[in-house]
Structures are given as structure tokens and as C-alpha cells.
Design a protein that fits this description.
The chain is an alpha/beta fold. It folds into two domains: 252 residues, Vaccinia Virus protein VP39 (Rossmann fold, 3-Layer(aba) Sandwich); 56 residues, no CATH class. Strands 1, 2, 3, 4, 5, 6, 7 and 8 form an eight-stranded mixed β-sheet that branches. Strands 9, 10, 11, 12, 13 and 14 form a six-stranded antiparallel β-sheet that branches. It starts with a helix and ends with a strand. The protein binds S-adenosylmethionine. S-adenosylmethionine (SAM) binds next to α3 and α4.
Amino acid sequence: MSLPDRFQAAVSGWLAGHSGSHREGSAALSATYRAGGSSARIDLGSYLVTRLPATFAAVNRVLAELARRRPDLAPESLLDAGSGPGTASWAASDLWPDLARITFLDNSPAFLALAAELARQGPPALAAAIALKGRIDSLTEGAAADLTIAAYALAELPVEQAAATAEGLWRASRKALVLVEPGTPQGFARLRSVRSRLLRLGAVPAAPCTHALDCPMSGSDWCHFSVRLPRSRAHMHAKAATVPFEDERFAYLVLVREGAPPEGARIIAPPQHAKPGVTLRLCTEGRLENRHVARRDGAAYKQVRKLEWGDMISPVTEEDTP
Ligand SMILES: C[S@@+](CC[C@H](N)C(=O)[O-])C[C@H]1O[C@@H](n2cnc3c(N)ncnc32)[C@H](O)[C@@H]1O
């Protein structure tokens, strides 16, 4: 998954005007995020080179899943909470061309200025986006939109503030709330606490959960997914990387106001392919299970053999493994 052409052009143009290798900034940025730190003092160029492609790919994957599950969502307004360079807004406007009103909300003036500068080169809704300096953990009255997205933003708050912050974001969401976090045990733990709090307020899971029962993950398990994306030459240089791609691990939660959770089960680990068939690790109706689909079960096997980690499976004829 690469950036859309216009976004890539805007980013490349910005980087060309702010030259530097971004190698040191990138090492500092990785260390900051690994330690659970904030974006407050990071180098913007390093963010664009080393994090933006991956956060875009993850958000894009999540929004595509929302669009698949809720084809009638058609959001007209978006609150991009913790917008950074506007990553989520670019992903959303690519998917929903009717999106007309976009607000970037961030407490960093530098990120807001960057988001506005990049957005000027985007489609009309992005070019007209409002850049609002504010805190996602104390939303102002009246901050409301059809769709609210907080991508890699809760991670920058103290853990104990995540659920209360998400509650504020949920209240601001007329149709849907999308949360994307690093695919780490901590990122998942944050989303799990948000999930239980917001389900009590009547939120309906649209993805990845296929039920509104208690989350069945336990022990050292954590619900996360992965998206593969190409590395640019600048990214390879900044990260001293040797392979031309990276795998971004992310955790996410999509909550909507209407309807029911999707029917079926979510594949929550890479499918294990072997000669006799494929074994899928599934989250289904409030429990986790391994489901083996034998190659000899022609139709059922055909239905699942190309499915990937993160996809959904509808009921099939299968054998369960103990
Ligand atoms: C890791 S960046 C993610 C940016 C973007 N959403 C993305 O996915 O690429 C986190 C962003 O959240 C912003 N942020 C962190 N804490 C915030 C807070 N309490 N209120 C508003 N913005 C915040 C940071 O300034 C930064 O722009």
C-alpha cells in the first residue's frame, strides 16, 4: 500500500524543501515511540519519511474494512483527532469522496501547520480543512462529526486517560469512531479498556470484533493485525534497512451507533497452511478457536484458502481442532 499520488507528491515536495537525511531524527523518533513518548519534539521530516507511510497504510486498511462492513456510512464530516500531518484525513477522503468537512485537531502547532500545508495540495475538502489547536483529551463543546478518527494518538496519553478520552471522542461521533493504535500489547490493552467502556454506552463494534460480548483475549495474547508496505529509498536510508518493505503491526477498534456487529468470525493470526489444509485462529461469538479446514472439503477449503490475517470468515463446513 503506497500513499495516493497527490499525497505522495505533497509529502515529497515538503521534504524537498526541508532537506536532511532524517537518519538521526528517525533513530530518535523510533526510540521516543518505543519508550511510549509523545510527538511533541519530534522531527517532522523524520515522521514523514519513517512513520507516515506505515500509519497511512494501517489507517487505510482499517477504513477500508469499515467501508466494507458499512457501505451506507457515507460520512460528510470528519474529526481527525491527533491528526499529525493529516494522515487519516487523506485516507478517508480517498475512500469517501463525499467527505466535505474535515477538521484537523492536534495540540502541536508544528504538526497542524504541516497538515494544512500538505492538505492545500489535496482535493477540495482537504484543501478547505480546518486546523484546530486543541487537546483530544478535553474536546470543546460542539466538536462533532459523522466520523471521528484517532490514529496513533491515544498512545501518547497516560494509559489511565485512554478510556475517558475515547468516551469524549465517542460523544463527538455522530456515526462512527475509529481508533488505531500500535499493534503492541499496550496498544491493544488501551483499546480493550476503551471497548468495554464504550459498549456500556451503547456503542456497536463494527470491526475487528464480530460480537459485543466480553473480549476473549487472555494471557499473553493480544489482538493485532499487520499490513505490508513498500519502503522508499529515503526510508531505507533513514532506517538503515536491508529489505524493500516493512510490516506495520497495528491494533484497532471501529464502533458505530447503529445496527449489529458483523456476522462471522475474524482471523486474528496468520493462517497456517499445510498439506492437509489450513488452520485459522478465529475470534468468534466471544471466544477464540482454531478452525481447521481440510483440503478435501473442496467447497469450504476453496472459500478460505486465500483468506488472510485480518479477514473475516462466514460460517463454512469445517472440522474444529481441539
Ligand atoms: C504519532 S502521531 C499520529 C499522527 C497521525 N494521526 C498519524 O496516524 O500519522 C500523534 C499525534 O497526536 C498528537 N497528540 C498527542 N497528544 C495529543 C493531545 N493530548 N491532544 C491533541 N493532540 C495530541 C501529536 O501532536 C501528534 O500529532
